[in-house]
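Private note to self, pasted from the team thread so I don't lose it. Backbone tokens:
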């Protein structure tokens, strides 16, 4: 069995105790983090090592930042999209070679938000997604067993939005973003979460404002995509809403996939 998870912690400095508690209760084999918001010299690798996790990280001050935590050594580490000039820390990848499933390539991403359709940040998001897809095509050729996880900042269908009419053509829900999500699937991935029957309104993100969590007004924008070679291995994929109930929580919940 192999358990992998993704969690946008929205500041690792703030959420480290919550992360350590969660890992103690959910000892996954690997987890990718987004929005660590730490420079590399501030990353809490010693605390994570004490919890049994080796860490690879890629950070920047105040914004973005990603990490890969693994029970066993990860190799062939890549930070950001090769060949795509980017000052933002958004991608980290590594191979888990010591699994009963054979080598599994784990890629953690913090997709750009995009701000608003037509903005410069939206154009950056489109360019970033195009570069990601080109690189992932090469990764799939090299590694049949790939798991792509992270905060995608895309709600792929109306079923992933609490108010599809209100969110229509808004950021996360535009035709262009959803087309890119489909292009990721067309490369040879499946949306692990949608391979199983799920509870209604299965969101992974709730705004801090307007009592959104209490009203369960959220989006499913945190995803785990598995390469088709891993589809027969899928056993479960769930969103753990419990950490969103914490004091000073992240606005995102962890997503966990189980492979056998």
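Design output:
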């Amino acid at each position: 069995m192999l358990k992998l998870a993704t969690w946008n912690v929205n500041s690792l400095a703030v959420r480290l105790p919550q992360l350590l508690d969660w890992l103690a209760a959910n000892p996954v084999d690997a987890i990718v983090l987004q929005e660590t918001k730490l420079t590399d010299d501030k990353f809490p690798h010693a605390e994570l090592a004490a919890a049994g996790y080796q860490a690879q990280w890629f950070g920047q001050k105040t914004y973005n930042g990603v990490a890969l935590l693994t029970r066993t050594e990860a190799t062939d580490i890549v930070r950001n999209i090769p060949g795509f000039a980017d000052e933002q820390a958004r991608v980290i990848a590594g191979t888990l070679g010591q699994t009963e499933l054979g080598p599994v390539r784990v890629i953690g991403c913090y997709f750009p938000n995009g701000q608003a359709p037509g903005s410069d940040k939206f154009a950056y998001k489109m360019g970033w997604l195009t570069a990601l897809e080109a690189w992932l095509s090469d990764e799939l050729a090299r590694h049949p067993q790939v798991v792509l996880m992270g905060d995608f900042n895309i709600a792929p269908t109306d079923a992933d939005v609490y108010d599809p009419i209100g969110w229509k053509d808004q950021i996360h829900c535009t035709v262009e973003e959803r087309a890119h999500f489909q292009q990721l699937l067309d490369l040879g991935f499946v949306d692990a979460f949608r391979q199983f029957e799920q509870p209604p309104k299965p969101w992974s993100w709730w705004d801090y404002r307007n009592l959104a969590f209490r009203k369960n007004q959220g989006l499913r924008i945190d995803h785990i995509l598995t390469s088709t070679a891993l589809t027969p291995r899928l056993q479960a994929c769930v969103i753990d809403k419990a950490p969103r109930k914490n004091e000073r929580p992240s606005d995102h919940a962890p997503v966990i996939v189980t492979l056998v």
